[in-house]
Amino acid sequence: MADLQLLDCFQPELVRLERVRFFQRQLLSVADMVTEQDYIRQKLRRHNRFLHGWGVVCGLEVTPQPTSEAPWRVEITAGYALGPYGDEVYVGESVFLDLAQCGPDAITSPCEPDVLEGPSDVSGGTIYVAIKYAECVTQPVRAMPAGCACDDVACEYSRIRDSFELSCLTEMPPATAPPLLCDLIAENTVPPCPPCPEEPWVVLASVTLPAPGVAVDVGDIDNLSVRRQLYSTAILQHQVIDCCCEPRGEVGADLSVLKSLDTEMVAGGFRQLTYLLRVTNHGPAAASNVVVTDTIDIVNGSAVQVDSLNGNWTPSGPLSSPTANLVIVANVGTVQPSPTAQQLGFRVFVRRPTGPTAGPLSVTNTATVSSSTTDGTPGNNSSSTTHTWQD
C-alpha cells in the first residue's frame, strides 16, 4: 500500500478508485457525488503524471515590471503547466507579484492572485518564483437547515474554481529527473514509475534581487536554467518529422504511351503505314513540356515521307534523302491527369528495293514519352511495334 500511496501523491483514500454504480430509485448523497468527481479527477492526474510528466508547457514567463512604489515588481505572463501531482495549472491572464514582500512565508490568494497572504519582507539574495495548483471556493448560497425550521440559515459555497498560488522559495524544491530513453534501451531496463515529488511547486524563474530601492532588471531574471520545461506533443511531432523524415520531393506525374499500327497499304510502289499513339497521364500531378519521340528502324527499305495526322511531328513531309533510321518528335505541351488518352498519329511511306536479292521488309517503331515533371513510374514510358513483309 505504501508504494501505491507514494505513486498517487499521498492520497491513500484515492489509490483504488471507485465510481458510482447508478440504478433506478437510488438515493444519492453528497458522498456519491464526491466519489464520482474524485474518480474522474484522479484518473486525469494519473494520466498527466505517468504519460506526460510535469513542468511548464507554455508561457508563464517572469518579466520585470517595476514601479516607483514597487521597484521589485514582476509580471507572470499567461500560460499553462502540469503540476508534480498531475494537476493542471492554468493562468488565463498576467498577474503581478511584488518580490519585496514575497518571502518564504508569503503566498498569493487563489481567489485573488495579485494579493499576497502573510507577506514578509525580503532584503536580497536569490529567490525562486514558483507556482502550484490551488482551489478557490466561490458563489455562496443559503443552505437548508439540518434541523427544525427555527435553526439559523447557514451559507455554503456552491462552486470550486481551479486556480493557482504563487510564492517565492529560498531554495529549489527537490526533484528527480526522468531516466533517459537511450539508457533504458541500452540497458534493456523496464521504465520505473515516477515517484511523486515531495512538494507541489513548479519553479518558473530564479531572480537575483538588486540592492534595495533599485529596480529589478531583465538581466536579474533567469527563466530557463531552473525551469522544468514540458514540451507539447505538437512540438515533439514537428521536431521528429523535421529531423528524421527525408524530403519527399516534388509530387510527380505518371505518363504512359501505347503504340499500334493502325493501317497499312501498298500505294504507288510504297508501303504506307499509319501509326496510332495514345498518351495518358495517370497523375497525380500535371505533366509539363510533354514530348513524344518516335524512332523508326527499317530493314531492307527506307522512309521517304512522313505525314502528321494528330500532333505536330518534326520532321514532316517528303524527306530530302531516304533514310533507314528515322527519328521524329511531337511537342504535346501540358497533359493533365485523366483516364482519357490523348491521341497522336502519323503516316510514313516506306520504299522497298526491288530485285531477287531483296530480303523481307521489316519496320520497328518505338515511341517514348517524357516531360519536365518527375515521373516515378518510367517503365510505361515506351512502346514498340515490329512488322515484317515478304513482298
Summarize the structure.
The chain is built from four helices and 22 strands. The protein has 391 residues and is mainly beta. The strands form six sheets. A five-stranded antiparallel β-sheet has the order 13-14-20-16-18, with no helix packed on it. The protein has a five-stranded antiparallel β-sheet with strand order 17-19-15-21-22, with no helix packed on it.
Structure commentary:
- This protein has 391 residues and is mainly beta.
- It folds into two domains: 53-243, no CATH class; 255-389, Sandwich (Immunoglobulin-like), CATH 2.60.40.10.
- It is built from four helices and 22 strands.
- Counting DSSP E segments of at least 2 residues, the number of strands comes to 22
Number of helices: 4
Structural class: mainly beta
Helix content: 10-25%
Q: Order of strands across the widest beta sheet? A: 13-14-20-16-18
Outline: elongated
> Can you tell me the residue ranges where pLDDT is under 50 for at least 5 consecutive residues?
1-7
Distance between the termini: 101 Å
Q: Output the helix-strand order.
A: HHEEEEEEEEEEHEEHEEEEEEEEEE
Radius of gyration from the alpha-carbon trace, in angstroms = 42 Å
Rounded average pLDDT = 86
Q: Give the amount of beta strand, in percent.
A: 35-45%
Number of domains: 2
Largest β-sheet summary: 5 strands, antiparallel
